Amino acid sequence: MQNESKKSRGGGVISRYRSYLPVSETTPIVTLGEGSTPLVFAPRLSERIDCRVLVKCEGLNPTGSFKDRGMTVAVSKAVESGAQALICASTGNTSASAAAYAACAGIRCAVVLPAGKIASGKLVQAIAHGARIVSINGNFDDALRIVRELGGRDEFAIVNSINPDRIAGQKTAAFEIVDELGDAPDIHILPLGNAGNLTAYTAGYSEYKQLGKSRRLPRMIGIQAEHAAPIFHHRVIEKPETIASAIRIGNPASWEAAQRAINDSSGAVEIVTDHEILEAQSWLAQTEGIFVEPASAAPIAGLLKLAREKRRDLMPMDATVVCTCTGHGLKDPEIVSAKLAAPVAPNIEAVREEITRS
Ligand SMILES: *Cc1c(COP(=O)(O)O)cnc(C)c1O
What we know:
16 helices, alpha/beta, four-stranded parallel beta sheet, six-stranded mixed beta sheet, binds pyridoxal-5'-phosphate, 10 strands, single chain, globular
């Protein structure tokens, strides 16, 4: 019993979906209990877009984003192969996750980050978990290029989504959705950065359909930010810009695979503005009680835009839509805390006036 509980510390996606993942009996499992996140019905969002919308709350993973699903597999495999250190480039969440799983595995972790471009919550996590942090005067795409070269050369195991073990782990989110709904949704919508996650969901849905566990494959819809939309525009964006730092990517690593998945599923790539992202973030938090980081609000903004433009070709009435909210709102607190009003005098009148102010 003791052995068993030690092996399956906190459950996690490998213990839940072991036979679908590239692990063997002898793989040392590194887990923080990731996965099995809530799939929450969103009544007001459903009403606004005339569909049945469920939100997959990936911000409730151990380090606050879906990256943990892939990290448990990638780090377990890295440890199995004798790696002494992990390395990754990151817009924030990959480094937070890698740092935590490296700590759990008792190995080192180096992260290469675009200087000044990482949301504070994510940076704090990498520091807290003891990663070696290297900031570069460049963007994420530069960081990934450097990591690819270093990882090929030295003793580092690369844990970016170019590592297929990451994608394998991330496909478990699709399994969970089908297991819970009894079939795949009609539509799956999520933010697109490096496009690894859309690729992973597609792999998961396809695998389950082949095994007869679901009858349909969802239409895959990816959402990019207006000025960081290489897949939408079919060209590399040299200087991608958006408030949604997790999808501030100009040259996605999984571009081709994602494009194929979108085409094969009669899906689409759409763009939203930063303003629409922030509106959607605040609306979701204030009407559904779900607080997500800006990148995760992008697909919500996308749904609202598609509804506004009456795109019934993509989103028929009453379709079942699953939206992945990829990361927790607390990752990026500055964006919201700027809205706090200035302090008032310490008396009842001033406080009452402030409360009732319209
Ligand atoms: C990594 C990340 C994304 C982008 O996912 P890709 O697999 O790179 O497309 C979106 N949102 C959040 C919160 C992320 O951490």
